[in-house]
Amino acid sequence: MSQRYRTIWLSDVHLGTSGCQAAFLLDFLKHHESETLYLVGDIIDGWQLKKSWGWKQSHNDVVQKVLRKARKGTQVIYVPGNHDEAARQYCGLDFGGIAIRQEAEHLTADGKRLLVIHGDEFDGVIQHVKWLAYVGDSLYTVILHLNRYYNWLRQKLGRPYWSLSQYLKHKVKNAVNFISDFEQILADEARRRGFDGVICGHIHKAEVKDIGGILYGNCGDWVESLSALVEHADGRLEVVYWTRQASSASEAAMIATQPVREGTLEEAETCAS
Questions:
Q1: Would you state the pLDDT for residue 193?
Q2: Is beta strand 32-39 parallel, antiparallel or unpaired with respect to 3-10?
């Protein structure tokens, strides 16, 4: 049995990289339906594909699943990010039932106007010191490799998925400050442009919160947190985590409806220690 939402937002899938958790995402897509599906950037990782080819069958399966949803009536809107910036030259066009846009406006069921944007446009490193962003991306890839082997061992021991990169991100002071600044800048931009809120990706930190009266939502990613942002029928937004592949539809429905609680990351850290 599938869980149905009014809207689903996904970002930072990074298809084409070894760190992409495509099997988990495919399982999520199989068990979740929506009227509208937003792909909020970095869906395909052009940066890594230029260095080495890491495209697996599961990555093809994710693309095919999204195209199938579009054919069956789901409105699919793709807002490219910095890793798939090559797609930005096609903004304004539609391909295979997928609308490619530089940014989008979403109206929630309860009447909130939300700006949908990847967010790299407001990252000073990406905009002004791009070589440093490439260096950081390479280091990040190394951490994701370590994370993959670590979780392979945890799986053998019967332990749940845990993200090393997320743990480091929440412990390093400069990373914490960058995330906080990024969230504030995006909220300020939405306010300046007259929106009630903003939905973005880019920083791989799933979140729904109020920032000075502006609704801020981040989809998270599918290399670390394995998360999506969803809108319920009443307009309420929620982060949904999918940190294990469900063995059945009934199990999937049970996981999908579990509430996301404050302290989820801390609980995961405790499990890992």
A1: 97
A2: parallel
Other CB atoms within 10 A of residue 209 CB: 12
pLDDT category at 56 given cuts 50, 70, 90 is: very high
E-strand spans in the chain? 3-10, 32-39, 75-78, 94-95, 98-100, 104-107, 113-116, 197-200, 207-211, 214-218, 227-231, 237-241
Distance (Å) of CA 173 to CA 137, 145, 179, 196: 19, 23, 10, 30
Rounded (10°) angle between helices 173-192 and 164-171? 80
Determine if residue 12 is left, alpha or beta; phi over 0 gives left, psi from -120 to 50 gives alpha, anything else beta.
left
CB 43 within 8 Å of CB 9: no
Q: What angle do CA 149, 153, 154 make, to 5 degrees?
A: 115
Specify whether the backbone of 194 is left (phi greater than 0), alpha (psi in -120 to 50) or beta. left
Q: Looking at per-residue confidence, does 153 or 28 come out higher?
A: 28
What CA dihedral angle connects 243, 109, 14 and 225, to 10 degrees? Answer: -30
Torsion of CA 22, 24, 27, 28, to 10 degrees: -100
Q: Is the dihedral of CA 162, 139, 58, 39 positive or negative?
A: positive
- b/e 128-139 (16+ beta carbons within 10 angstroms → b): eeeeebeeebee
Return d(Cα 106, Cα 113) in angstroms, integer. Answer: 6
102 Cβ neighbours under 8 A, 6+ residues apart = 79, 80, 88, 91, 92
Q: What is the mean pLDDT of the chain?
A: 81
pTM: 0.75
CA–CA separation, 22 and 113 (whole Å): 31
Please check whether residue 30 is in contact with residue 245, taking contact to mean a CB–CB distance below 8 angstroms: no
Q: Please give the average per-residue pLDDT across 124-148, as a whole number.
A: 51
